[in-house]
Structure to design on (383 residues):
């Protein structure tokens, strides 16, 4: 079995999730390449050294530019904040390394275009690139796509997607990097809105062709870790309407102020023959409404997506034994390793991720210019 020698840049939440995936992928799936966790890179020497031990990397480094030039690496896994995705990803591709880059691909359409162009050029030399939209790899989501592709819900009329979190509801939550435009590119829109844009396009097979949006920042100043306060320069919430190229109309909501919702990613599709609905907080299940059944038998059924016939599940446990969030990353690197071994282009490609970036940009431009029709407060006094 050949080796796929991996270097990972960044070792926070996503770095930990990706490390778990690299540690387990060859134990769960039979692959022609064995992932070797060669080096983890971080800015701080002590923290990178500790991460190497804790996350299972053979060594650690602090200079990503040196890491991507190493001749004992085949792939660079970019798990840093968005402001470094383009610089690291493009340099790694130029150095002949396959690249896995966390979502969103970049902090701007311009950067995403450069990354997609670099990936296309590298593709000609057999170098592969994938963007880490991991929710595609939830078995129930992959099943949702299969049901839609098989025509089981007919013509899609409505797409309804929300991604609800609440981790910054407290105004005293500090100004972390995800709340700074110069580092994160955008707020809830790019961080979690990107997921529902990619996921809905993935399960419907349709692309967003236009949006009408609003964004809001509820708390505009937050404490700085070193004292004082700083300006929040990103959206706390993004809501938008969309049309998709297959004729569906859609609503999207991405917010970090849905008090009580911890990671509430939900997608529902309503079609001419039925509906499907997914809720990440019940990630092993899919709701399916078959409108072709006799009326007396119609109703939302709950499919427990843990059968060996369900995507990825034959690698894990017997039916009825659920999997978790971390398994989606194992599935993601499984598909990447298989694509590299088969000399095929993995998905989602950087071009796919560029299209998501273009949608995010359209949402921001719409929110900045949308025609907002005020509702006259005629009855306010009476209420
Ligand atoms: C945001 O808190 C976040 O960590 C996203 O960045 C991830 O992509 C999502 O999977 C979980 O929430």
């Amino acid at each position: 079995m050949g080796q796929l020698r991996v270097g990972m840049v960044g070792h926070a939440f996503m770095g930990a999730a990706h490390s778990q995936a690299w540690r387990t992928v060859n134990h769960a799936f039979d692959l022609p390449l064995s992932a070797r966790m060669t080096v983890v890179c971080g800015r701080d020497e002590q923290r990178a050294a500790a991460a190497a031990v804790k996350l299972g990397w053979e060594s650690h480094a602090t200079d990503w530019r040196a890491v991507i030039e190493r001749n004992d690496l085949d792939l660079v896994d970019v798990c840093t904040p968005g402001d470094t995705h383009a610089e690291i990803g493009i340099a790694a591709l130029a150095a002949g390394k396959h690249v896995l880059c966390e979502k969103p691909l970049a902090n701007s359409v311009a950067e995403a275009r450069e990354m997609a162009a670099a990936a296309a050029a590298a593709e000609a030399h057999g170098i592969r690139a994938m963007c880490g939209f991991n929710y595609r790899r939830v078995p129930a989501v992959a099943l949702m796509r299969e049901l839609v592709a098989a025509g089981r819900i007919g013509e899609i009329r409505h797409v309804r997607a929300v991604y609800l979190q609440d981790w910054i509801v407290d105004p005293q939550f500090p100004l972390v990097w995800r709340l700074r435009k110069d580092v994160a590119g955008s707020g809830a829109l790019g961080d979690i809105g990107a997921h529902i844009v990619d996921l809905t396009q993935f399960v419907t097979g349709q692309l967003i062709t236009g949006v009408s949006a609003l964004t809001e920042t509820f708390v505009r100043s937050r404490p700085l870790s070193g004292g004082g306060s700083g300006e929040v320069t990103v959206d706390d919430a993004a809501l938008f309407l969309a049309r998709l190229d297959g004729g569906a109309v859609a609503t999207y909501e991405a917010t970090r102020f849905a008090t009580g919702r911890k990671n509430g990613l939900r997608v529902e599709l309503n079609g001419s023959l039925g509906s499907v609905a997914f809720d990440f907080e019940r990630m092993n299940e899919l709701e399916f409404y078959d409108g072709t059944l006799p009326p007396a038998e119609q109703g939302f059924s709950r499919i427990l997506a843990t059968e060996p016939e369900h995507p990825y599940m034959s690698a894990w446990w017997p039916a009825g034994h659920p999997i978790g969030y971390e398994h989606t990353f194992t599935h993601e690197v499984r598909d990447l390793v298989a694509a590299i071994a088969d000399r095929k282009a993995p998905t989602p490609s950087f071009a796919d991720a560029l299209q998501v970036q273009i949608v995010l940009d359209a949402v921001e431009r719409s929110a900045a210019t949308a025609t907002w029709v005020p509702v006259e407060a005629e009855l306010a006094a009476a209420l």
Q: What stands out?
A: Residues 101 and 131 are 5 Å apart (CA to CA). The mean pLDDT is 97. The longest strand covers residues 33-41.
